[in-house]
Amino acid sequence: AAAPVAAAPLAAAPAAAAPAPAAGGGMMSGLMGSMASGMATGVGMSVADRAVDSMMGPRQTEVVHRNEGAPAAASVANCQSQQDQLNQCTQTNPGNASACQFYLDTLKACQQTH
Q1: 27: enclosing H helix or E strand
Q2: 103 contacts: CB under 8 Å, gap ≥ 6
Q3: Which residues contact 78 (CB under 8 A, 6 or more apart)?
């Protein structure tokens, strides 16, 4: 009797590669995805800002307006004598602002009219 011959083990089949994701949609799907992501980020930031404001109180900003241009320069030239008087008063009365209040008021009145 012949000894049974063992069958050679079958080699394992290589695992099939995962299918590549479909590259459909084109540019508009990428743009819409980015827009949706941006909106979600914006909403998240807004919610976080409100949460911080609720714990720490609302933030306050101060807006400073500066009138830079020809009209402001003209008023400075028109009120130069008042400016000089105020400067002279503050130099002769250091630390005593109330002594120069009259000159300050005169300068402000001049700047408002010019």
Answers
A1: helix 26-56
A2: 82, 85, 86, 89
A3: 110, 114
The secondary structure of 46-88 as a DSSP string is: HHHHHHHHHHH------------SHHHHHHHHHTHHHHHHHHH
- pLDDT less than 50: residues of the chain: 75
pLDDT in tens, 71-83: 555 545 788 998 9
Would you say 106 and 85 are in contact if contact means Cβ atoms under 8 Å apart?
yes
Please give the torsion angle defined by the CA atoms of residues 26, 29, 34 and 37, in that order, rounded to the nearest 10 degrees.
-150
Contacts of residue 106, defined as CB under 8 A and 6 or more positions apart, other chains included, come to 82, 85, 86
Considering just the CA atoms, what is the radius of gyration of the chain in Å? 40
Of 111, 64, 69, nearest to 86 (Cα)?
111
Q: Residue 89 to residues 80, 93, 103, 106: CA-CA distances in angstroms?
A: 14, 6, 8, 13
Count CB neighbours of 86 within 10 A. 20
